[in-house]
Write a structure and sequence with these properties.
This protein is of the alpha/beta class and 295 residues long. It contains ten helices and twelve strands. It is 39% helix and 17% strand. The protein has a seven-stranded mixed sheet with strand order 1-2-12-9-8-6-7. It is globular, with a radius of gyration of 19 Å.
């Protein structure tokens, strides 16, 4: 943990490295006991640059922890029907424990149909309705990766959630909605979800002991919107271009870090906060899927 006199920086890179070391040890133990090595399959459709980068990170992470992996690439002209058949093939492949289809998909392919086609016990992104709904059960299955990563950061930094006021800005199916359920079910917190129709956002965020922002609007949250001593989790990552940046662009979060951080007890940076935890959570889910399918 990196500390200043005002706040503790939540180092997602460091935590993700710790998690990968823990997973590596479990994979080594499975090998020693002649148990199956976890196997992640990844489908990538088209040649979107950002998607390719994310997939490369996931492949690299698999190598780091000793997982087997399979990359399946298809042109963006593939039909929905053909993609469904490939998903069926992976669903039925007993050697594959975890399975993801990298988003976004081309406009002619339904994300909902593709997501629901993935077997829920192999759905290591935690996107299917079955896994999403299991969050409110006593035995959740494979949790959505980014919210799972956020909960893990809160746990590993000993940030108390029980009885706390948690405000989530952003109600998406990928982050805000599942995280709200996890904070209530696992964290025993009082949760408010805000979105683009929320009236007087500032008056709500000022009440937050824990503030999570996930909308993709750089600099949305300013210092006057944050309670003194709050823990702030910035999920937003937006590429902002301009000649003032060394590489021609910079990754910006939803929180004005420089102004907000002095008011915080804990805060995540962008990049290096939540981002690395999404892949770490994907690996944790793949290990869990392997353990469930091949104890």
């Amino acid at each position: 943990m990196t500390e200043t006199k005002d706040y503790t920086l939540i180092d997602g890179r460091k935590v993700s490295i710790d998690i990968k070391a823990e997973i590596s040890a479990k994979v080594a133990e499975r090998k020693k006991l002649n148990k199956k090595v976890p196997h992640l399959a990844i489908i990538l459709v088209g040649d979107d640059g950002a998607s390719q980068t994310y997939v490369d990170y996931k492949v690299k992470a698999c190598k780091e922890v000793g997982f087997h992996y399979t990359m399946m690439r298809f042109a963006d002209t593939i039909s929905e029907e053909k993609l469904m058949k490939h998903i069926d093939h992976v669903n039925n492949d007993e050697d594959v424990d975890g399975f993801i289809v990298q988003l976004p998909l081309p406009a002619h392919i339904s994300v909902e149909k593709i997501t629901e086609k993935i077997r829920s016990d192999k759905d290591v992104d935690g996107f299917t309705n079955h896994n999403f709904g299991s969050i409110i059960s006593k035995n959740p299955l494979l949790l959505p990766a980014t919210p799972f990563g956020i909960m893990e950061l809160l746990r590993r930094y000993n940030i108390e959630t029980q009885g706390k006021n948690c405000v989530i800005v952003g109600a998406s199916r990928l982050v805000g909605a599942p995280l709200s359920m996890m904070l209530v079910q696992q964290g025993h917190a009082t949760v408010t979800i805000c979105h683009k129709y929320t009236v007087d956002l500032k008056s709500i965020t000022q009440q937050a002991d824990i503030l999570v922002v996930a909308v993709g609007k750089p600099g949305l949250i300013t210092a006057d919107m944050v309670k003194e001593g709050a823990a702030v989790i910035d999920v937003g990552t937006t590429r902002v271009e301009g000649p003032q940046f060394k590489n021609g662009y910079s990754l910006k979060g939803d929180v004005e870090f420089k102004d907000v951080s002095p008011k915080c007890s804990f805060i995540t940076p962008v990049p290096g906060g939540v981002g690395p935890m999404t892949i770490a959570s994907l690996l944790l889910n793949t290990l869990k899927a392997a353990e469930n399918l091949n104890p």
